[in-house]
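dumping these here so i dont lose them again. two proteins, back to back, each one seq then structure tokens. dont judge the mess
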Amino acid sequence: MDIDYIIGLYLNDQASEDQLEILNKWIEESSDNAMALNKLEKIWLMKSKKSFYFNENEVSDRVWNRLHPPSLSKRRFLTYKTFFRSAGFFLLAAFSFLLYHGLKSDILQRQEVTETKMEVKSLVVKSNPRGVKSTIRLPDGSTVILNAESTLRYNFQANDTIRYIELEGEAYFKVMKDANRPFIVQSGSVRTVALGTEFNVKSYANEATTNVSLNQGKVQVTIQADQEAESYYLNPGQCLEYDSHEGRAIKNTFDNRVALGWTDGVICFKKDSLQQVMSKLSRWYDVNFELKNYHGTPWKYTGEFQDEYLDVILKSMSYSQHFDYKITKGNVIVNFKN
């Protein structure tokens, strides 16, 4: 019997005990199958209940309980639950639409199913290396400006009921307004939900903080930490900064040029440390820095440059920060003066 058909019946609570046995054997064949079923369950909940956040343990418990009604023998069903309880699986960054043999969605939207259909979709991945920015047009008409050293993943279609995106790095979103189809951006443990708005999300893997800055409209930002979720609502001009190391979220206002200037070719520093300055320049110009004779003197550098060459920026900095520099083949040697 076709496993797609059985999964469809399972999602609609119409699978027989024999079919549940077959489904259990299928998920025990590989961890990929188990992950696929869990993700299908999550998508199904999002579509049927119109809710955009679920505790991951609750999702796995739901699958476990549905797969193992009291009448079924439990002689060999530890694999699924043990797998989903294992450390590291429940990274919210795991893209919820990845399915086995590709990506499948829009499953059985009717409660009474006579025939199960699954539509195969391809995962779209847009990545920029250091030194490159790009503009992406999404299937729903929304626009994304993707910053350097950033990756965007999605697989929704123009008529899907949920617009779900995973982001690593930084991007500015101009979301087409649609009250019936929420726009969800997952960045690590931070989830941003919008209906029609413009906002920026910055969430680099090598940085402890995730920043959501709202330019227009309204968004809901949900943070998942220690199995608990906390939501915040932002109005234009407000931002939320979440520190994953300290587990602390701060709601504040933001400087438009500092947070959003990069979308217009503006690199802006505001009392930035040496590490922050070098990190921005490395990402912007695809270079590596080597520091010489630096004795830990703290930086609080402020400056703004638009569409400038790296040499121009470093020359300007060198006067106030007292260093010489040399640029050679993607490397910058900065030699501080005594």
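---- next one ----
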Amino acid sequence: MESPIQLTDEDRGRLQRLIGTLSGETTNAQEMRGAAEELAELSERLGQDIDDLSLMYSSVIEHSTGLENELSERNDQISLLIEKMRHFLSPQLYGRITGGTAETAAGNHQRRNLSVFFSDIVGFTELTDTVEPETLSQMLNSYLDEMAHICDRWGGTIDKFIGDAVMIFFGDEEQADPMQCAKDCVCMAVEMQSSLGALEEKWRSYGASHELRIRVGINSGYCTIGNFGSSTRVDYTIIGGNVNVASRLEHQCRPGGVLISGSTYAMIRELVDVQSMGMIQVKGVAHPVETYEVIGRRPEITAQTHTMLVERESGFDLKSIHFDTQATAPLEREAIRDSLQRALVRMSATESSE
């Protein structure tokens, strides 16, 4: 920016001449008076230029402060929008978008070996006819919130919520290990089943008496994953025969159970006990699918996958347990049995030390 103080060559010459005159030993009074008047005139003009510069400086500072405040406000707005966007995306997809690594064009997809999970609430359609919409919203949101927390803990990607149904997959990361993904998926499903007792108690506080049970289907295999949609809107999702198999397994599963395919069981056989449920035929899949129901878990994953018993240094919390001789599924029976056994062991240890 050009300075408003304009000291020309002529001004510099005058200034040097005036200084010489005022400091000269032979300068008479009349010359001294004329030089002083001329210097005062030059000083006044330069002072006016300095005032103009000061005014311009103040204006620049004020303008820059305004720009800084506007920039800060825009950053706050962007942060708020990003935070809102986080609630509509899985943590994995959110991280890729904010990190600048996500592709947004439709048609960008690839093949990955995934473990796919489907679940839904047993009798939810009938429940919608007996509960007020506001209460139903509270119940459904509390359920989905708990399922999402468990999913995040095991590293799954929530594909979508469809009413009371949940679709999740594992293995979309480039370096993902298919076997570990299958293990995490099954552990997540088992923990979800074990968390329903506390959730059912919460539903009762809303005034509902509906027994909360879910069906779960899991299948592992290659799927197509990526962006599907139009030029203006896309969904990051998965498609393929193995997705259809997982959905069919969920429909075939009995209430309170976890039904897995043979391909999933082959990768997690050391973690759970299962019961063979025979073969099913899935439309669009050329060969029959072998199925297994998870009926128990091995000790190495027991503490990680059920929340009925929460142990503390000074004791434990045993959450609400509901047992029905006809309706309680094998997996839930196993969780109840293990929780009670561990609670009794803890109590016995405390009594023997007194």
